[in-house]
Amino acid sequence: MREYDQDEFYRFFRMTPDCFDWLLEKVGPFIRKRSNRKSVSAGERLAITLRYLASGDSQSSLSYLFRVFNEAISKIVTETTAVIWYTLKPLVFDEISEDFWRQKAAEFEAMWQFPMCVVVQSALNASK
Question: Could you name the domain of life of the organism this protein comes from (predicted)?
Fold first, then answer.
């Protein structure tokens, strides 16, 4: 599909082939299975997961589409989404620190002239 019709590829996965390749380069080493028996490749694992996220298809539908056991689809989607999150999180989100919350509180107070209380309490302290 990717060689013949990039528009269809985009509709199917909600990303361009170049973006797919970039993401596969990032997450591929973590989702590749090393086994003596024939296993689902890293590219197929990513394709299954992206199709699931893009379409909301049922896992049984994906099982027929990709010719993979239904039980394996569930495991593949769970593992791959976790790897995507942990791989892309540092690239997308800044590390949240105490200084970050102080800055946000100051911005809120400057905008609304109302002090924003930014406090984290443990559940034990909150129940007292």
Answer: Eukaryota
- Contact 51/62 with Cβ under 8 angstroms? yes
Mean pLDDT of 104-114: 82
CA 86 to chain centre: 8
In this prediction, residue 46 has a pLDDT band, given cuts at 50, 70 and 90, of very high
Query: DSSP letter string over the chain?
Result: -TTT-HHHHHHHHSS-HHHHHHHHHHHHHHH----SS----HHHHHHHHHHHHHH---HHHHHHHHT--HHHHHHHHHHHHHHHHHHHHHHHSPPP-HHHHHHHHHHHHHHHSS--------HHHHT-
- pLDDT at residue 80, as a whole number: 95
